[in-house]
Design goal:
With 180 residues, this protein is an all-alpha fold. The chain contains seven helices and no strands. The model has no long low-confidence stretch (mean pLDDT 86).
């Protein structure tokens, strides 16, 4: 039974760890920054400028939702489609950290150490947090999977991996107590 738990743990780690690990690249492709922090800052400067223009129009008493000006509509679309900066920055970094922690958890599970129970709970909780903070970004022409969907696949895979690692250790304890 422990062997079956280890097999499921490895398979779910491969899926979940891969999805969590490549999440940062997926988000960068969606943002059009390709890992360049200057480009990311430029995108958020543009959004900030557009927000200032919209705020100025609102201060002047103009209802921006009823204006037919294409430039204002484009500004509103840019503001709505751009996720919060902290989500873009931290979701990718948390995904990489989670993939590394999951790998360590898999190794510790094979070593039959008690630490795997704490590590499996940590990985499961962090994978849910990763899914929660990952921004939803509309698909482009060549952009691939939505980051929120990729994070959900990673979350499910890593939670299954965590449960299997936890059960692997518990089955090892049960077997060692039965033989003692």
């Amino acid at each position: 039974m422990r062997v079956l738990a280890l097999i499921f743990m490895i398979l779910s780690f491969l899926v979940g760890g891969f999805c969590a690990g490549v999440l940062f690249k997926n988000i960068e492709n969606r943002m059009g920054t390709d890992g360049d922090s200057e480009k990311l800052e430029e995108v958020y400067r543009l959004v900030e400028n557009e927000q200032k223009q919209i705020d100025q129009l609102k201060k002047d008493g103009i209802d921006v939702t009823k204006i037919e000006d294409p430039q204002i509509k484009e500004s509103l679309e840019i503001i709505e489609s751009t996720p919060a900066k902290w989500k873009v920055v931290y979701a990718g970094k948390l995904g990489i950290l989670l993939a590394v922690l999951a790998f360590v958890m898999v190794v510790v599970a094979f070593m039959k150490k008690e630490f795997v129970t704490k590590l499996s709970i940590l990985v499961a909780v962090l994978s849910v947090v990763l899914w929660a903070i990952t921004p939803y970004m509309e698909a482009g022409t060549f952009s691939g999977a939505n980051p929120k969907s990729l994070a959900l696949i990673g979350c499910i895979g890593l939670v299954v991996c965590s449960v299997c690692a936890f059960m692997s250790y518990k089955l090892h304890l049960k077997k060692s107590q039965a033989t003692a």
